[in-house]
Amino acid sequence: MVETGKLSVGLRDFLKTYPWRRIDPVPKASLSKPISECNVALVSSAGFVVPGEEPFSDSVRGGDYSFRVIPDDVDLQSLEEYHHSDSFSHAGVEADRNMGLPLDPLHELAAAGEIGSVAPRHFSVMGAITAPNRYVKQTLPVIADLLVEDHVDIALMVPV
Amino acid sequence: MLARITAKIRPPRALAVPFPLGFPLGEANNRELQTAILRKVLALLERDDVPVLEKFVEP
Lengths: 160, 59
Hints:
The structure holds two protein chains of two kinds. Chain A is of the alpha/beta class. Chain A contains four helices and seven strands, in the order αββββααββαβ. Chain A has one domain. Chain A has helices at 9-17, 91-95, 103-111, 133-149; strands at 39-44, 48-49, 67-71, 80-81, 117-118, 121-125, 154-158. In chain A, strands 1, 3, 5, 6 and 7 form a five-stranded mixed sheet that branches. Chain A is globular and about 45 Å long. In chain B, strand 1 (13-16), helix 2 and strand 2 form a beta-alpha-beta unit. The model of chain B has no long low-confidence stretch (mean pLDDT 94). Chain B has one domain. Chain B is an alpha+beta fold. The longest helix of chain B has 13 residues, at 31-43. The interface between A and B is large, with 45 and 37 residues.
């Protein structure tokens, strides 16, 4: 795992002083059926946008808390990345969008019968949101409703 | 992902990967590795003793 010692001094200082939210109590959702029967969706913080749709903004104070819908049949490599953080190399995501939204591996698991199915749509949000309240209270409930609408059993969060 | 920070936040289930920031799925175009990581993430769902933070070990 990444150790904080390998990060820039500025980033280390920020991470040390940022008031991280502690989840308490920790919610627990248990499987009601085998994973091999579950419908799975992805939620990525890579800041992906389908070409032609509105980009994420880097001028929203505290971070752009909107989300984008990514259809499952999207041309994955066509997705545009709007994650503005310079605290990490974007080379991996640029070379292979699966690094931020692993649709190809997910489909491989479905083809092998290890999961039941892949959801018809996935979701992308911005990463590096420093003021997450609007994201938690406004954005996530909408995404949750859409996941329910799609009969999603498992939503995997891909942090970028 | 920064495991120490994740442990502070306490999401229900999380997988710590031994890769640099920006590389949560390990390596670009390495489908075998990416699939192995997803498989391990899914396996976390079989644990109900949340919060769970496991380390991914490359096969």
